[in-house]
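Collaborator request, handled under Task 6.
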Amino acid sequence: EGDSINLLWPDGSLCSGSQEYKNADIDMSWSRNIDNNWLFSTTATSGRANIFTSKQEEIQNFPVAPIEKAKKQAKNEWVKISGVVIVEPGLFGKRVMYIQDESGGIKIYFDKALWPSLKIGDRVIIYGKISISLGEYQIKVYGPEDIVIIGLGPPPEPAKKKIIELNDFIGQLMKVSGRVVKISGSTIWIDDGTGELRVYFYPATGIKKLGLEEGNWVTIIGILSKTSAGLRLLPRSKNDVKIFENEKKEASTLGNSLINQVLGVENVQAASDYRTINDDPKAIKPNNIYKIWGAVLLVLGFLLLATLLIFARIRKKYAKDNQFF
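Structure tokens returned to the collaborator:
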């Protein structure tokens, strides 16, 4: 509605009063200049003559920091970063988007949701305050002028990681493979043998009715996020999800090379048979040894059964003549 500030003498008479101001932005000073006009300024001058600087000047003069360096600033410190849009506003909620640079990725939060027109691949400069929400770093912006589009380029390629390695990549575009071990509504859990990861499908992504079943192998691209319940992966569209029915079918029809491609690593990482990428691919793996011993025992069993059947027939034939026993 607007407000004003008055400075009174001890007897209650007016010493000085400000003009009414409205829509005050955060961390702005409302000050009078030498022409007796009242203006907003980004510079506070306690005990000194007033200095008038605009938000645009403040943003322009503020140094750009890598995203990972910005995350190390104290809470509510102003930061300025540059990066590529990897999730446009509205997909994960109207107040949220994500950007990424060479050092890392981060969520951008805009309570007013007065976003400029943005799409994946846009290069932007973001000016705002660093904060943490549910364990995840974010930058809070306060006006459309805090977001400047400076160009367009290809979005970054997702980084392929095992689930156990994900803690250092929150806010980034990731690629993870594993077996579906649980399904509940719009959430699934996958396991790659190093741990489990929750995957959530936001309604705005249109990811539904994928025909997923427990036991399916999947490769999923998405933004790694964090909540009070732990890490989660957030795909952006159906193109971010690839489904493979099961390991056995893929192995028998397409061979180990495709399984390795499905998992995104050099060796199969099944939950019950995890192997590191340093394993010698020519070495006999434990599962192969079990299969060889199983085949040997099966052959020996058939031979023993055949011998017993032959022995039983001979015994029956000669039993009456007491030639055997």
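The cover message to the collaborator said: "The mean pLDDT is 83. The CA atoms of residues 2 and 22 lie 4 Å apart. Please let us know whether this matches your experimental observations."
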